[in-house]
């Protein structure tokens, strides 16, 4: 079995974090997210994986290499310019070795049963089978209408409410027969959702839905990214590689832990610190006395000054936050930023990579 994973997106909604780290490589419980996805695919028998890359492609290649360290072979189809989701797939096609393959978006966290998806595809004789999830509001997704035999009869990307006829939406994964790629012009900028799937349906090709109750979440915004951490820490997603070990409480005397928490290797947490989960602290972080970390995600090497409070926010790699700071309300701090003492950052504010803020300022998003 082989798969194509599209990992070339710019991750604009997660900036500034994705200006220096490709979105699929942002950490999830202190591992690159894409590493979890690769291990999940390998666990379902995928032996060859093609990454469709563009933005910061070198970081992905440097981490995964030829795939031998992850139990499968990895090839790379790097775009010179963005080609859209279907264009990226067409660009990766020469590296495929088989007539049937899986396709997944590189920013989707799911525990979908790929073995069952593949079996459904074979049983129907489909050209393409789309994994579907049921949602209350399909207007932000690709709405998919299926008949009684699960054949797709209509696809509307981000429908208006008056267009809604189904609550099944594209989960971000499919099985394709290679012949489906004949509908994608080589080198053209085209979309899976707006071009390829509707073209296949319109041409009468057998396109089927695989209606699933599996967990899935798009990691594309700061809120969704933090929510994925919460779900993993609370055991809502059934991926063994996402199950963290509880912190060794004896290693942190005087620190009070509440709820599920992941703590990376080499952290120094001072006494009188409170950590309220779900929360994730990256490796090598230093937290001074009297700090509170609540439902937040800290990347590697963060340093918090005494008495700081960080809640429901994301702090990038190697950020230094001075004493007495308050960071809350969906704040996002880019890596290597320096935040002076007694700052308040709240209400969705985003601090650029490498930015330095003076002491005693208040920052709110406009």
Low-confidence stretches: none
The separation of the N and C termini measures 49 Å
How is the main sheet built? Answer: 7 strands, mixed
Rounded Rg? 22 Å
Q: Strands across the major sheet, in which order?
A: 5-4-1-6-11-8-12
- Classify the helix fraction into a percent range: 10-25%
Number of domains: 2
- The CATH superfamily of the largest domain is known as Spore Coat Polysaccharide Biosynthesis Protein SpsA, Chain A
In the CATH hierarchy, what is the class of the largest domain? Alpha Beta
CATH topology of the largest domain: Spore Coat Polysaccharide Biosynthesis Protein SpsA, Chain A
Mean pLDDT: 89
Shape: elongated
What's the architecture of the largest domain, going by CATH? Alpha-Beta Complex
Structural descriptors:
alpha/beta; UDP N-Acetylglucosamine Acyltransferase, domain 1; seven-stranded mixed beta sheet; seven-stranded parallel beta sheet; elongated
Write up what this structure looks like.
This protein is of the alpha/beta class and 366 residues long. It folds into two domains: 2-233, Spore Coat Polysaccharide Biosynthesis Protein SpsA, Chain A, CATH 3.90.550; 246-364, Hexapeptide repeat proteins (UDP N-Acetylglucosamine Acyltransferase, domain 1, 3 Solenoid). Helix content is 18%, strand content 31%. The chain has helices at residues 17-20, 33-43, 57-64, 84-92, 114-124, 192-202, 222-233, and strands at 2-6, 27-28, 31-32, 48-53, 73-78, 100-105, 108-110, 128-134, 142-146, 152-157, 168-177, 207-212, 216-218, 256-258, 261-263, 268-269, 274-276, 279-281, 286-287, 292-294, 297-298, 303-304, 309-311, 314-315, 320-321, 326-327, 332-333, 338-339, 344-346, 350-351, 356-357, 362-364. The strands form seven sheets. Strands 5-4-1-6-11-8-12 form a seven-stranded mixed β-sheet, sandwiched between helices. A hairpin with a 5-residue loop joins β9 (142-146) and β10. α4 crosses α6. The longest helix has 12 residues, at 222-233. The termini are far apart.
């Amino acid at each position: 079995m082989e798969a194509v994973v599209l990992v070339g997106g710019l991750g604009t909604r997660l900036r500034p974090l994705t200006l220096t780290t490709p979105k699929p490589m942002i950490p999830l419980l202190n591992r690159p997210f894409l590493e979890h996805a690769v291990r999940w695919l390998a666990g379902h028998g995928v032996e060859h994986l093609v990454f469709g890359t563009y933005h910061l492609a070198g970081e992905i290649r440097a981490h995964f290499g030829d795939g031998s360290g992850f139990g499968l072979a990895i090839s790379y189809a790097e775009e010179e310019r963005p080609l859209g989701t279907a264009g990226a797939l067409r660009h990766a096609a020469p590296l495929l070795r088989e007539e049937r393959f899986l396709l997944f978006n590189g920013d989707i966290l799911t525990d979908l049963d790929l073995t069952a998806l593949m079996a459904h595809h074979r049983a129907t004789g489909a050209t393409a089978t789309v994994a579907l999830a049921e949602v209350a509001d399909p207007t932000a997704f690709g709405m998919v209408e299926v008949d009684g035999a699960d054949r797709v009869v209509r696809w509307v990307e981000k429908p208006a409410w008056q267009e809604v006829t189904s609550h099944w939406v594209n989960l971000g994964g499919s099985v394709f027969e290679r012949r489906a790629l004949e509908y994608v012009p080589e080198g053209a900028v085209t979309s899976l959702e707006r071009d390829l799937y509707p073209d296949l349906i319109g041409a009468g090709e057998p396109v089927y839905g695989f209606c699933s109750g599996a967990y899935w979440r798009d990691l594309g915004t700061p809120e969704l990214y933090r929510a994925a951490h919460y779900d993993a820490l609370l055991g809502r997603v059934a991926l063994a590689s996402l199950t963290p070990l509880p912190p060794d409480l004896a290693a942190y005397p005087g620190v009070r832990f509440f709820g599920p928490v992941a703590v990376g290797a080499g952290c120094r947490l001072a006494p009188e610190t409170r950590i309220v989960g779900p929360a994730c602290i990256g490796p090598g972080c230093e937290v001074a006395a009297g700090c509170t970390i609540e439902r937040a995600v800290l990347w590697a090497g963060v340093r918090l000054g005494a008495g700081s409070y960080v809640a429901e926010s994301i702090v990038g790699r190697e950020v230094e936050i001075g004493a007495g700071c308050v960071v809350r309300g969906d704040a996002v701090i880019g890596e290597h930023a320096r935040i002076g003492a007694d700052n308040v950052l709240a209400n969705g504010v985003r601090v650029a990579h490498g930015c330095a803020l003076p002491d005693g300022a208040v920052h709110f998003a406009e």
